[in-house]
Amino acid sequence: MDERGISFEEIVLNIYLGNELDIFENPNQEKYPNQKISVVLVEDYAYLVQFVENENEIFLKTIIPSRKATKQYLGESNE
User: CA-based Rg of the chain, rounded to a whole angstrom?
Assistant: First the structure.
């Protein structure tokens, strides 16, 4: 578990449980080529999980808690 209070294991479990809300390309492909971002819901809060995928594996890079994504995907009532 890192300083954000959430572990990669929790993220993987929530993806497995169907709590992945969205996947999109990292907007800064020049700096982060081939990197994508997954939006994962964990206990009513959205986390942005940056990852790289190839034919053999998916490598999770970092977990970012996101108020903006929580509001966007879950609405105003979850603040």
Answer: 13
Range of the domain at 60: 8-74
Q: Is residue 15 part of a domain?
A: yes
Q: Model pTM?
A: 0.88
Indicate whether 1 belongs to any domain: no
pLDDT in tens, the chain (79 residues): 546 689 999 999 999 999 999 999 999 999 999 999 999 999 999 999 999 999 999 999 999 999 999 999 998 765 5
Residue 3 domain flag: no
Determine if residue 59 is left, alpha or beta; phi over 0 gives left, psi from -120 to 50 gives alpha, anything else beta.
beta
Domain count within the chain: 1
Q: How far is CA 11 from CA 20, 23, 30, 38, in A?
A: 9, 14, 26, 10
Phi, psi of 30 (to 5 degrees): -65, -45
